[in-house]
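Appendix C reproduces, verbatim, an entry submitted by the partner laboratory led by Prof. M.T., so that reviewers can inspect both the input and the predicted structure.
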Amino acid sequence: MNLKKIDLRKISILLYIIALFVPVFSGSDSNGISALFLGWVGLLVEFDPNIGLPWIANIFYFFNLIARKISIGIKITFSLLTISLGLFAIGIEEVLVHEGGLKDPVEPGIGLLLWIASFVLLLIYQLLRLREKTLGNKS
């Protein structure tokens, strides 16, 4: 298998999409889509950095994917910020079950791991691009 043909950026996007459809946490049926649509609650309703900051990571991730005219150094900075913000989700110990305020205790699940892995793969892709660019300029 030729490793140069593997597009880590596309794999990153695929992992992100898969993470949307699997449970984010063990102990909860909530999938990534519900976490994506309700994460803003952690910012605006009950400021909880473990909920709100990971939600902001999605904004940086999407911006990083669509920004074409930004230098690779800035994209790498965005990726590092995305990973840092996303890791706050590990601190989530309970999730809201319904509007009545009932919460279930949870632990990080497969969806969270895939979500973070998508961020890490995008960073690796960018670091490899930077390396290619640097080596290309030296020849």
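The chain has one domain: 3-138. Additional entries are available on request from the coordinating office.
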